[in-house]
Amino acid sequence: MKKIQKREFTAWLFLLPSFVGTLIFTLIPFGDVIRRSFLDAMGNQFVGVLNYKNVLQNGAFQLAIKNTARFVVTCIPLLLLLSLILCILIVGRKKHGDFFKATYLFPMAIPVASVVLLWRVIFDKSGLINEFLLSFNMQPVDFMNTSKAFYVLVFSYIWKNTGYDMVLWLAGLNGIPTSLYEAASIDGANGWQKFKYITLPGLRSTLYITLVLSLINSFKVFREVYLVAGDYPNNSIYMLQHLFNNWFLSMDIQKMSAAAVMLAVTFLLLILLLSWLEKRWEGDYKKKRRLTHKNENI
Amino acid sequence: MRKKFSIFILLIVILSMILSACSNSTQQSGDKKGKQKSKGRYIEHDIEMPKLEKDETVVKIVENKEHQLELYTYIAKETTKYNCYLLKEDDSWEKTSLDWLNNSKTSEMIMVDICLGQDGSYYACLQNISGEQKANIIKKTNEGTGQFLDMACLNESTNVGEYNTYKIPSKINVLKNGNFIFNMKESAQDSSLVIFNQKGEKIDEVVTINPNSFSVSGNCVYLINQDKKVVSYNTETKNNDQILDFDGVIDSLQLFTKDNGNVIGVGPDGIHCYSKDLSLWEKVVEGSSNSLGMPSMDVKGTVVKDGEQDVYYVAFSEVALLGIQDGIQKIKKYVYDKDASSIPEKEITVFSMEENKTIRQAIAIYQTKNTDVKINYVVANSKEGGVDSDYIRTLNTELFTGNGADILILDGLPIDSYIEKGVLTDLSDIINPLIDSGKLLSNLNDSFTKDGKKYQFPARISIPVVAGNDEIVNTNVNLQKIVDYINKNNNAPIMKKISSEALLKGYMPLNIDTILKDGSLDEKALKNFLENLKTLNDNISKDNLCPVDEDDTDLYAVENSRRFASMGNPYTMLYTKVNSVEGMMSLNGLKQKQNMTYSSLNESFIPSAMVGMNNSSKEAETAKDFIKFLFSDEIQKLNMNDGFPVLESSLKQWFQEESKMMSFGTWDDDDNLINGEMPNEEEKVKFLTLIKKCKKSVVKNEALYKLIIDSARSYLDGEKNIDQTVADISQKVTVYLTE
C-alpha cells in the first residue's frame, strides 16, 4: 500500500509542471471567461444569461455556427476517408513508400503566408484557374467573393491536412499485429475481408484520436481565410473565428465569452460522446474476439 | 525519499519564483519604493535672451576656449553690424562688438555661420547681400583682425540667365589640420558634406542623412551615415574610425563633440551622451518632458559646461508655420537637480494611433509646468509595418484588464464601441463649462453629445471645402448634381485624377446617412451612390495630365489646392481642406487666377485630436487636468498646422494675428507664376463665419468604410458589375451590423 502511494506521489510530481502550466494558461483564464460570460462588457455588472441569449439570437453568430458546422461536416469525413485510402495505398507499396509519405506531408511544412500567396495565384479572378478557363472561352469565376469560396476552403484544408492524418492512420496500422493478417490469409480471406474484419476494427482507437485532432485542426483554417479575405469574407466562409475577431475589436468581450463557453461545452460533449462510442466499440470488439477465441477452443 | 522531497521543494521554489515574477502588484510596490528613494534628474530652465535690437538675427551659439557660451548675431540695416553676447555665470549677457568682422568689406553681408575651429581660430561664413551673392570665409587672426580666405570653391559660379549663382555653405567647421568641412548642398536631394583644403580645393566628400548634423573632433567628423548610424569619419585615412550604435530617434539628432572626445546627441527624445571610455550612449536628459520633445522646437546648437554634473545649453529655433524658421529664438539650460525625484510622482499615458503634433506639444508644455507629472505618449503607428487592427486589439486587451492608457486620442479607434461598453468617462464637467461660458465653439457641441454626455471632444478641426465655379459649388457636393454637371459639359474631366479609394473614402462620410437608414443598408441608395461615383471616376480617369498616385488616398488633402493651382489645368472642381489661416492662401490664389469660388461641404468639419478619457484611469485627476490644459488658450492658440483651434478666443486670435507668411508662389509647367496672398479682413471674417457654421462632423467608421470600400473599389475600377458589388457589400454590411 505504501509503495502504491509512493508511486502515485512520484507520478503527481512529474505531472505538476504541466498541470501548473495548464492551470495558469488555460484553466484559470477559462474560468475568467466563464465569469465574464455572466457580466457586462467591462465586467462591472452581473447580467445573468443575457449574453447567452443575445449570442444565440445574433444573426452573425448563427451564420458563423452554420458555416463552421457545414465546414466540419463536409471536411472531416472527406479528410478521414481520403487520408485512410492514401495510407492503405502507401502501406501496399514497398517501393517509393517513404517518398509519397514525405510528399503528402509537405503542405504542412509550408508557412501560412506562402499558402495564402498560392491561393491568390490559383484562385484569384485573374489567377491560374481563370486564365485556364479564359483560354477555353469560358467565363472567369470569382472564387473568393462568391459561394465557391467555401469549396476553395474545403480544398485547402484537405490539401494541407491529408498528410498529417495519413501519418496518424499509419501509426494505427502499424499497431495491428501482422500475425492477424497471416492467419486470415491461411484461412483464405481476401483483401477486402482482411480490411473489413482486421484493419477497420483495429483502427478504432486511431479513428478517435484522428477525428479529434482533425476537428481541432479544422478551426485553424481561419488564418488562411483571414489573410486572403480579411475581417469580412464572403458569407460562405465567415467562420466563428471571424466573429470572435471582430467582437474583440469592438470590445464585445461579453459576447465572446458566452460564445466561447457554449463552444467549449459543445466540444466537450462531442469529445465525451466520441470517447464513449470508442470505448463501447472497443468493448464490443474485445467481447467478440473473446467469444471467437472461446468458440475456436471449443 | 529525502531526495524526492528535496526535488519537490526545489520545484515549489522555482514555481513560486516564476509566479512572483509575474505578479504585477509586487512590481508596482517595488516601483513605488524606487520612486520614493531615487532622486536626481535634469531640470529645464529658461535662459533669458539678451536684449536684441530690432531686426537683430541670432545666428549661432558657440562654446569659446574658456567653455563659455557665446551668442552671435547680426543686424542687417544699411550697413551690417555683427555682435557677440557672452553668457556670464549669473546667466546675464555681456555684449561685445565683433571688431574682426565689423568693417567696410563686410558691411553688405549677412552671417550664415560661425565656428571655433579645431585649430583654435574663429571662422565666419558671410554672404553678400548685394551684387553677386557669394559666400566668404573670414578667419580671426591672432592680431584680432579678420582675414578673408581665398577659397576656390566659393568662387565657382553657375550661370543662370543673367545671373551667376554661387554655392553657399550653410554650416562650416574647421579640422585640426586646417581643412574645411562644409554642408554645401548642390540640390535639395544632395546630402553630403564636402571637405576642402585651405585653398578651397575639394579633397573628399562624405554622405550623410542629415548634412546639418555633424561635429568635428581633431581631424575626425562625427556624422550620421546612410545606414542611420553615428560614425566617426577620419578625414586623413578616409575611413570610419568608429561606429557608435545609437538606439534613440536618429533622424533629427544633432551631434556635438566635447573636448574630452565624448559625443553629445541632442534630439526630440532627449540629450544623449556617448562616453568614449565606456563606448556607450547614455540618455542624460529625458526629452519628452521639456522643450526638446516639442514638435515646434528645432535644435540649433548645444554647449556643454563641464562639471561634476555637466550643464547643457541648447539653442532652439521655433519652427513657424510651413517650416519657415527665424534663427535662434530660445535658449534652455538643463541643470542636474539632485533633490528632484528621478521619476515624477504621477504618471499618465496618452495613446493615439497616429502622431499628433498638438498633443505632443501639449504634453511637453504640461510637463514643464508640472514637474511632478510624467506623461507617456504612446503612438501605435510610430513603427513601420504595423496593422491598425492589431494595435486596436492590443489596446483593447489593456483596456479589458484595466491597464489601458489614461487618455485616448480617439482618431481611428472604435469610438462608438468604447462609449457603449463604458470605456470612456463623461467629460461633461470639463467641456460643458467651456461651452456654457461661450469659450468653446458651440457649433461643435451637438456632434459630440450622446445621451446628454460628452465622452469625446476634438482639440482641432479642419474644414473640408469644394472649390470651383459657382455651378459646381452650388451642387453642395450632391453627387447626382455633379453627374448632371458632367453630362451637361460633354463629360470633360472636371477634377484632377485621383484613386478610386480616395474617391470612396472622401464621399462615403458625406453619403453614409442615405446609404444606412435605421440601422440597415438601403441597397437602392447604395446602388445610386456607386453608379454616380463611377460616372465621376470615369470622368476624371479620362484625364492623362498627371498620373494617379495610388498612395494618395485623401480626397481632401491640404496640398490639393497648391497642386491644382500650379498645374495650369482645365479642371473646374477641387476638394481640399483648410487647416489654418495661411492655408487659405492657395484658395485665394485659385480665386484670383482662375475665378473660382469655394464653400464648405454641407457645413461639415473634420475633427482631429479627439480626446477621450479611460474610465479606469488610476490617475483620473491628473488626466482630467491635462485634458483641461489641452482645451486652454495656451495650447489652443498654438499653430501646429494640424487644424483650427476649437476655443473661440484662440480662433479669433488666429484670424487677427498678422501672419509671418505674406504670400506663396509657385510656377506651373508653362512657367506661369501662380501665387496666393494672405486673406484680407473681409475674407477672414467670411471664413471665420463659415467655421462657426459647420455643425456636422465628418463621421469616420473605419471598419464599416473599409468593408464597403474594399468591395466597391473593384466596381469603380471596372472589374465588377454593379449588381454583384451591391450584393457583395450588402451581405458584408449585414453581417457587420448584426455582429
TrEMBL record, chain A:
Which domain of life, per UniProt? Bacteria
Q: How does it sit in the membrane?
A: Multi-pass membrane protein
Q: Which GO terms describe its biological process?
A: transmembrane transport
Record keywords: Cell membrane, Membrane, Transmembrane, Transmembrane helix, Transport
Which residues fall in a coiled-coil region? none
Per its UniProt record, what CDD domains does this chain match?
A: TM_PBP2 (cd06261)
Subcellular location as annotated: Cell membrane
Describe the family membership recorded for this protein in Swiss-Prot or TrEMBL.
Belongs to the binding-protein-dependent transport system permease family.
Q: Which residues form the ABC transmembrane type-1 domain?
A: 65-274
Q: Which GO terms describe its cellular component?
A: plasma membrane
Which ranges does the record mark as transmembrane? 12-30, 71-92, 104-123, 205-222, 256-277
Q: What is this protein called?
A: Sugar ABC transporter permease
TrEMBL record, chain B:
Tell me yes or no: is Signal among this UniProt entry's keywords. Answer: yes
- Where in the sequence is the signal peptide annotated? 1-21
List the PROSITE patterns.
PROKAR_LIPOPROTEIN (PS51257)
Q: Which Pfam families match?
A: SBP_bac_8
Q: Which InterPro entries match?
A: SBP (IPR006059)
Which keywords describe this protein according to UniProt? Signal
Protein name in UniProt: Carbohydrate ABC transporter substrate-binding protein
Q: Organism source for this protein?
A: Anaerosacchariphilus polymeriproducens
